[in-house]
User: What shape does this take?
Amino acid sequence: MLKSFVYYLYLLSYIVIPLISYFYISPRKGLQLKHVVLTCFSYAVLLSWTLFISKETLVSLFSFLLFIPLILNTYFFVEGSKLFRFSIFVTFYVLEVFMEAVSSTCAAIVSLAFPKWHISSIFSGLAGNELSFFIVSCFNIFWKIILLIYIKKFSKKYLHLITDQVLLFLCLPIVFVNITGNILLSIGAKSFQYLFIEFIIAAILSFFAMRTFSHGLKKLELQEQQYMEQHNQIVLLQKEVAHIHDMNSEYEQLYRWNHDIANHLMALSILSQRGEYKKALDYIRQLKSTKGGTL
Assistant: This one.
C-alpha cells in the first residue's frame, strides 16, 4: 500500500507542480493562491482511485491521460497568448522528461551500490519490480519539489527571460529529438542497413535540433541584452527624476528665502519712511540674532 501511495503522490506531483509553477510565472488575471490550492485538492481527490489498481495498468493508462490535465491547466491558469501557453506546456514537458532521466540515473546508482536488490532504472513501472517502482517514484517526487523551489526563485529574478520564442527554440528541439529517438528505438535495427539509415536520420535531425537550440540561445542572449539596456535606461531616468526633485526643492527654498527678504526690506522701508530709524536698527539686530537670519 505504501508503494501505491508513493506512486499516487508522483502522479499528483506530475500535475500539481506545473500548476503551482504557473502561479509564480504567469498567472491568469484574478487568479489567487486559494484557487490553486483548491484545484490541487480536487486533483488529489480525483486521483485517489489510482491507489486500488495494478501498477502495470496505471503506468500504461497515465502515459496518455496525464497530458489532459496538463493541457487544461495551461489553458485555464496561464495568462498570455496561445503561443505563449503552448511554449509553457512544451517547457514543462521537457522538464518532466529531464526529471524522469535524473530519477532513473539516481535509481541506476542505487542499483550499482546494491546489486542484490535488482533495481530497474528504465521502464521501472512496466519491467521493474515493486522496489524499483517505489525508488524511482520517490526520486521523481524529490526532484519535482526541488524544481518547484528553483522555479519560484527563478520567477523572481529572471521572469523577463520567459518569452514564447525563447522557450520554443530551446525546448522544441529537445521534444523532437526525444520523440524521434523513441520512435527509432521502437522500430529497432533489423539489419546493418536499417541501423545505418537510422543513424543518418538521427544525425540529420540532431543537426537541425542543435541549430534550432543554438538559435534559441542567441535569442536568450539578445533578450538579456535588451533587458539590461532597458534596466540601465530606467536607472538613468530614476537618477534624472531624483535630480529634478532636488533642484525643485532648492528652487522652492530659494523662493521662500526671496519672499522673506522682500518682507524684511518692506518693513525696513516703512520704518525708514516714518523716520523710525531706531526701530529699524533694532529690527536689523533682531534679524542678525535670529538663528539662520541673515541680511
About this structure: The chain has a mean pLDDT of 82. Residues 93 and 248 are 55 Å apart (CA to CA). Residues 192-273 form the longest helix (82 residues).
